[in-house]
Design a protein that fits this description.
Blueprint: E1 10-13, H1 20-37, E2 45-49, H2 55-68, E3 73-76, H3 82-91, E4 96-100, E5 109-115, H4 124-136, H5 145-151, E6 154-157, H6 160-170, H7 173-178, E7 182-186, H8 195-203, E8 206-209, H9 231-239, E9 244-248, E10 255-258, E11 264-265, H10 267-280, E12 287-291, H11 297-305, E13 309-312, H12 316-325, E14 328-332, E15 338-340, H13 349-363, H14 367-378, E16 382-389, H15 395-404, E17 409-410, E18 413-419, E19 424-428, E20 433-438, E21 444-451, H16 454-472
Parallel strand pairs: 2-3, 2-4, 3-6, 7-8, 7-9, 12-13, 12-14
Antiparallel strand pairs: 1-5, 4-5, 9-10, 10-11, 14-15, 16-21, 17-18, 18-19, 19-20, 20-21
Helix pairs in contact: 1-2, 1-4, 10-11, 10-13, 15-16
Length: 475
């Protein structure tokens, strides 16, 4: 069975490909890779796990293999968020981190995320070497959990205290407390449960946590903080007369928000609002990194503040690479993975929720008012995406045709540039854009658009689907 690491780890269906046998094989390949490439071979490996079915048992299975390979393991005592594990890697000077999670994917999936010594996702070259080791694995080494625990090769700990100590250096909890906000925290049954509730309560907020109990089926939803899965949060904010709702995905590396009226606030606005706050109020400067499918508001703000801007393919690993190489103030993507300088180079929904609260307290304004101010400054922006399941097609040929035969106008707007960094993106005269991007892992065509009105977004999406259909069918 081929096991392949995507942009952020290996994911598969539990009981089909994600089995104890395969998990142990992957753990052995990671062990072989680390023993050959680690700069600090005596440093430990940090391991965490989410709330999915058998995640804790899979984490123990991985730990048993690493311990059998003479690699010291620090294993979380309970389910924990991926950014907490990533920070623990740094704080404990570990050589790597492993997280058992399928992030925002449906409940039937599980996965393994591999973190490097900086807490960032392992690069494609690093995971390629793990896959190379995997092809050579015949049988994993295993040391019984109880024996490894007794020998000190596996230790259990709670990573939250060191994360909380760090967060207090990155976020001003005293400022947050001055707002005396009423907050609804929604971890969506995921590994982010308890974090926002604990931190915001300590800061002086009144916090209601919903969907925080252990539920490996995620209540029948996908643990992804997008509008169609957040109706429970919207209702809770309205019913409890709260000031804001904050949602994190299955492993808490993504953020979504709801304003006091129960309106969904997408990551595009969260990214833009936070960037403006960091520069205007905290007086921070540095480069900004965004993926190709992220709002043009970031481009306008980077231009306003004269900040270097980098646009990458989809996937936070591309952002992390730049954050480890350059002086980057902030990086983020449309899915809600966002982080700032001084934190780990990976998305952190917990951090971003706290920064929103700090921002609201500083301005003395709610999220709805702050979004209105941003629209007044930059103009209105609306965003939508369509995912189209298709028959298999040549992705390379489609991208070539979309680029070479680009239309001069779409929906009455002049095309001013064409970008083929990841799929094909048409940028229009008014900063609207359309992105047609084949999935890298399945026969799915993703069509994204951002424009100045909801009607124009829908028109661009419709024309984008028609254009891609025509190009794939050779007409």
């Amino acid at each position: 069975m081929p096991i392949h690491f995507g942009t952020d780890g290996w994911r598969a269906v539990i009981g089909e490909d994600f089995t104890f046998e395969n998990v142990r094989l992957v753990a052995q390949a990671i062990s072989d890779y680390l023993k050959e490439n680690a700069q600090s071979p005596d440093a430990p490996i940090v391991i965490g796990f989410d709330t999915r079915f058998l995640s804790d048992r899979f984490a123990i299975a991985v730990s048993e293999v690493l311990a059998a390979n003479d690699l010291r393991v620090i294993l979380s005592r309970a389910d924990c968020a991926t950014p907490v594990v990533a920070y623990a890697v740094r704080a404990l000077r570990a050589q790597a981190g492993i997280m058992i999670t399928a992030s925002h994917n449906p409940p039937r999936y599980s996965g393994i995320k591999l973190k490097n010594a900086n807490g960032a996702s392992a690069s494609p070259s690093e995971t390629a070497r793990v896959e190379e080791k995997l092809r050579a694995v015949s049988a994993p080494k295993i040391r019984a959990y109880a024996d490894a625990l007794k020998a000190g090769m596996i230790t259990r700990t709670n990573f939250f205290p060191i994360y909380f100590q760090h967060i207090q250096q990155v976020v001003n909890l005293q400022t947050i407390g001055q707002g005396q906000w009423r907050v609804v925290a929604d971890p969506m049954y995921g590994a982010g449960r308890g974090y926002l509730r604990s931190i915001l309560t300590a800061a002086g907020c009144e916090v209601l946590e919903i969907r925080g109990e252990m539920n490996p089926g995620f209540g029948g939803i996908h643990p992804e903080p997008i509008e169609k899965y957040l109706f429970a949060l919207m209702a809770a904010v309205r019913d409890h007369h709260s000031d804001i709702g904050l949602a994190t995905d299955g492993d808490a590396d993504r953020i979504g928000a709801v304003d006091d009226a129960g309106n969904f606030i997408d990551p595009h606005f969260i990214f833009a609002l936070t960037l403006r706050y960091l520069v205007d109020v905290r007086k921070m400067r540095g480069a900004v990194v965004k993926t190709i499918s992220t709002t043009q508001m970031i481009n306008l703000l980077a231009e306003k503040y004269a900040l270097p801007l980098h646009e990458t393919p989809v996937g936070f690993n591309h952002i992390a690479d730049l954050m480890q190489e350059h002086d980057v103030l902030m990086g983020g993507e449309e899915s809600g993975g966002i982080t700032i300088r001084g934190h780990v180079p990976m998305g952190d929904g917990i951090l971003m929720g706290l920064l929103l609260m700090e921002m609201m307290s500083h301005y003395g304004k709610g999220l709805r008012e702050l979004c209105d101010e941003l629209r007044a400054e930059l103009g209105a922006f609306y965003y939508a995406r369509r995912d189209l399941r298709t028959k298999p097609f040549s992705k390379k040929d489609l991208v070539t045709r979309l680029k070479n035969d680009a239309p001069a106008t779409m929906a009455g707007l002049q095309v001013v540039s064409v970008n083929d960094r990841d799929g094909v993106k048409y940028l229009f005269e008014d900063s609207s854009w359309l992105l047609i991007r084949p999935s890298g892992t399945e026969p799915v065509l993703r069509v994204y658009s951002e424009a100045r009105s909801p009607e124009l977004v829908e028109e661009l999406l419709t024309q984008g689907v028609a254009l891609s259909d025509a190009m794939r069918n050779g007409s």
